[in-house]
Specification:
Layout lengths: L5 H14 E9 L7 E12 L4 H10 L3 E5 L2 E7 L1 H11 L7 H14 L5 H17 L9 H10 L5
Antiparallel strand pairs: 1-2, 2-4, 3-4
Length: 157
């Protein structure tokens, strides 16, 4: 990641507030300890005709990928460490998504110390809460799904 000055960070934070998104997903993954992954992402969206700004963002952060779908493009960064760095950089400058950044950092922090299923469920609860402030409508993987998975796959005492 390049060293980014305060004015640039304020600009990028405004971009995130207007044409960006922060999201967390509970993703089934049989190869993960608890059977699920908590996936963190930050995305910026723009018309294809303005895609150069997304290339510039990617250059600033040194991570992520750019996709084009029809007339729209998105620059997305996925991964706990990369997303945490971006949220920490933009935290002092965001306005509309301040709750998102704070809750996102809380989720990322709690993910670092997962010892038990109870710990994982607490992170899932926060991800559900994040979905509420993000107005998510299509979420299928929730804390309730994870809880049911734990109940159905627990070992007898």
């Amino acid at each position: 990641m390049r060293i980014i000055d305060s004015a640039t960070l304020a600009y990028v934070a405004g971009f995130l507030d207007g044409d960006g998104s922060i999201f967390f997903q509970i993703v089934p993954r049989s190869d993960y300890r608890f059977g699920f992954e908590i996936r963190a992402s930050v995305a910026f969206y723009q018309k294809k005709s303005n895609a150069e700004i997304l290339n510039w963002l990617k250059e600033q952060f040194g991570a992520g990928y750019i996709r084009t779908r029809g007339e729209m493009c998105d620059y997305t960064v996925v991964g706990r460490d990369e997303v945490k760095k971006i949220l920490l950089l933009l935290r002092p400058h965001v306005r509309l998504k301040k709750k998102h950044v704070e809750l996102g950092l809380q989720i990322l922090e709690k993910q670092e110390n997962l010892e038990t299923e109870k710990d994982f469920l607490e992170v899932c609860r926060l991800v559900d809460k994040f979905g509420e402030i993000n107005y998510s409508k299509k979420r299928k993987q929730t804390m309730a799904v994870v809880k049911a998975h734990f109940a159905n796959n627990s070992l007898p005492p």
